[in-house]
Design a protein that fits this description.
Blueprint lengths: L1 H6 L6 H4 L4 E5 L2 E4 L4 E4 L2 H4 L8 H11 L13 H15 L7 E3 L5 H16 L4 E4 L8 H5 L4 H5 L8 E4 L11 H10 L10 E4 L13 H14 L2 E5 L23 E4 L12 E4 L19 H11 L6 H22 L6 E6 L2 E6 L4 H11 L2 E2 L1 E3 L5 E4 L7 H22 L6 H6 L1
Parallel strand pairs: 3-13, 5-6, 5-7, 7-8, 8-9
Antiparallel strand pairs: 1-2, 2-3, 4-10, 9-10, 11-12, 12-15, 14-15
The structure holds pyridoxal-5'-phosphate.
Amino acid sequence: MDTVNRLESEVRSYCRAWPTTFTTARGSWLTDEAGTRYLDLFAGAGALNYGHNDPDIKAALLDYLSTDTIVHGLDMSTTAKRSFLETFEQVILRPRGMDHRVMFPGPTGTNAVEAALKLARKVTGRTNVVCFTNAFHGMTLGSLAVTGDSMKRGGANVPLSHTHRMPFDDYFRTGVDTIDYLEAYLDDAGSGVALPAAVILETVQGEGGLRVASDAWLQRLSALCREHGILLIVDDIQAGCGRTGTFFSFEPSGIVPDIITLSKSLSGLGLPFAVTLMRPELDVWEPGEHNGTFRGFNPAFVTATAALERWRDGAFASEVRRKAELVTTGLQGLADRMPAGEARVVGRGFMQGVELDTPGLATAVAREAFARQVLVETAGADDQVVKLLPPLTISEAELAHAFAVLSDALDAARSQHEVTPDAAPALLSA
Ligand SMILES: *Cc1c(COP(=O)(O)O)cnc(C)c1O
């Protein structure tokens, strides 16, 4: 830890929240240098949907690397790339009636988002993109411009422009349909909102507090986009790859976005890998117009192909949906420990959490969970949500253990919270 703290930039973050040095990991567990085991309810921020070192996925990689196969190949054709594309078409696209083209941008999520935004602007010849409150799309300037969080945006120090921010589904929590608002802006020549190139959204806002777009809201948004010739981009980097119980998060709503971004769990093993999917008629790129050295990292093609085997039939997905109900029940149990109206379960599928209204309480719960060897993160603009993002492969026994620890952590956090300086003003005014 000392070397890390001395040498690594102040920008480091998770090593501060979880101050120990990890050595190995398997399934839902990490082990540190002292041999202490931690239950992982964060799964690499959703990059480890199949857990750590899944044996089948890892075996495919080790097998691939055992001969002098192509590791780096720019975007040349390789057998690994061909197998990935064939499998992705067979297992994911065709069964869903999708004919999207697959683009390999740089290997991280924000690269996929940048490519999506650039393509939408190029196709339509328009500048602005509509994005939503509490959205998170990545740290490079284009992605940051459509991200909501003011701390993250503040790091840019240049104008983050060419966007229009609109209220996400149920933003006001009063039942107002926020699509009415967007529709009125688009229809009113005096609104000051120019016709946008695209609308970009997450169906479940991963970093922004696990707010969920309802199916009806998504359907109205999709219809509105179609009516106005606006491209619909779903950023499925966190909510996709099975996290909500279907491969793509938007499947239950029946909408089919024009452009889709995937990354995080796409490689299955935690290797960097991203794709931007587009309807074929949108594929107007010139060859090499959007380039990059690490587009199509062959080891990631191999692990992603192995991971897609989970999706050949519906068994894995239905297992995820069944266990997601246990997550809901467990979280409701946590919410029930709080005074009425001060906590609620938010999110969907394997992307749920409990929102705690007491300022600082969710952060304190995460800290107390770490003290009990459970890794859990917070989400939301005020870190108000204890966010569960376990591996989709977590067992029922592990989930039961997680909720036992989390309820202790909540009780401990609450008893401490009453004496922290943060809580003092509230106590004085009471
Ligand atoms: C994590 C994330 C990104 C950014 O991905 P990086 O690999 O960190 O660049 C973009 N969009 C969503 C929804 C994410 O969760």
